[in-house]
Amino acid sequence: MIGGVTKPRSRVSQRTGAIAPSATLAVDAKAKALKAEGKPVIGFGAGEPDFPTADYIVEAAVRAARDPANHRYTPTAGLPELRRAIAEKTMRDSAHGVEWSQVLVTNGGKQAVYQAFAALLDPGDEALLPTPHWNTYPEAIKLAGGVPVTVFAGPEAGYKVTVDQLDRAKTERTKLLVFVSPANPTGAVYTASETEAIGRWALDNGLWVVTDEIYEHLVYDQMPFTSIVTAAPGLADQAVILNGVAKTYAMTGWRVGWMIGPPDVVKAATNLQSHLTSNVANVSQRAALAAVSGPLDTAVAMRQAFDRRRRTIVGMLRQIDGLYCPMPQGAFYAYASVQGLLGKTIRGARPMTSSQLASLILDEAEVAVVPGEAFGPSGYLRLSYALGDADLEEGVSRIQALLGEAR
To answer: What's the CA gap between 312 and 334, in Å, rounded?
Structure first.
């Protein structure tokens, strides 16, 4: 009490009040709002394929919507036929055999991310998080009671951490490692030998690995995708695989993801999901079944388009003095260091952080990019090249013109 008056409790819990909003979604929303006002904004913010979902997947959903069987609840863990198809797809794409009972279908990849951490972490447990990292990982770790421990690797290292770095960051409280390849936001892809070394290190140290494989089919330059679970035999009993249909099949809006892991972990996550969301929408599950059971033709076509755009955007960004951008080998992001531009004067402004620079680019060039603060240290910009070729070239041309004035 203060002066005889009871101090009111906070209206919002500390747990949820501490969550940072999704910076990528915020940038995308702002770009769309400015477009709605009639401004010619070009957005490089959203991590979303600009292709429509394939017709055969849409038709499967239409048929499902007409079937009354899909108008009801289904098992929390997902349609059995979809779980079987995901298990078969995992063997096909990752050479990793799992029982379909080890698959939990979730409402998009983000729910799988949160439930994996919630099932594994107790309060105070530390999770090693290679950085730059997708902005949802640390928030989901903290929501689960864990402590994210960032391990940074810069452009000179291809944005890839080493076993030595991880070993130095490990403490007696470390319980798990987050491993993502191909990576968002950097597009970095670990080689087979690098993946094996990290996997064996985690195995030797008794650490869980949560591996996000959502970009598995978006790799370039003949760089193979390597699942850490198959690279390090024996790791499967202490690993959780996260994936979904969003990126490979251009199905971000359908909201179907999954997690695969040891039976006890999947059971715990299923129990949690039973109280959160019950089952995933059945029409979306039927669409996902058609996707994972079908051909990868559309994924190949998208990859070819992304590869072309990747070369274009990196080539154009490298023409800007003070900016350095490694060539990404996966996903659909370019992650550029702008440290050579910070502190310089651009149209009367003097941005000292990448967040300030991103705001300047939006205000002056009407181009939306995501600053590095969303993914780790300041000094970087993420540009998604999942947009049309014409918009890509026009948007980067505007950035070139603006940053070319830096003095």
So the answer is: 11
d(CA 176, CA 120): 8
The reply to whether omega before 132 is within 30° of 0 (cis) is yes
Q: pTM of this prediction?
A: 0.93
Spell out the domains of the chain, with CATH numbers in brackets.
Answer: 14-52+298-403 (3.90.1150.10), 56-293 (3.40.640.10)
Token pair, residue 38, equals: 């009639």
Listed residue (191, 150, 130, 154) closest to 325, CA to CA: 154
CB 127 within 8 A of CB 140: no
Tens-digit pLDDT string for the chain (407 aa):
555 666 667 788 888 888 877 766 677 777 778 778 888 899 998 788 999 999 999 999 999 999 999 999 999 999 999 999 999 999 999 999 999 999 999 999 999 999 999 999 999 999 999 999 999 999 999 999 999 999 999 999 999 999 999 999 999 999 999 999 999 999 999 999 999 999 999 999 999 999 999 999 999 999 999 999 999 989 999 999 999 999 999 999 999 999 999 999 999 999 999 999 999 999 999 999 999 999 999 999 999 999 999 999 999 999 999 999 999 999 999 999 999 999 999 999 999 999 999 999 999 999 999 999 999 999 999 999 999 999 999 999 999 999 999 99
For tokens 């960032």, name the residue: 150
Tell me the C-alpha to C-alpha distance, in Å, between residue 255 and each of 190, 278, 284, 300: 27, 14, 7, 22
Cα–Cα nearest to 322, from 229, 241, 404, 248: 404
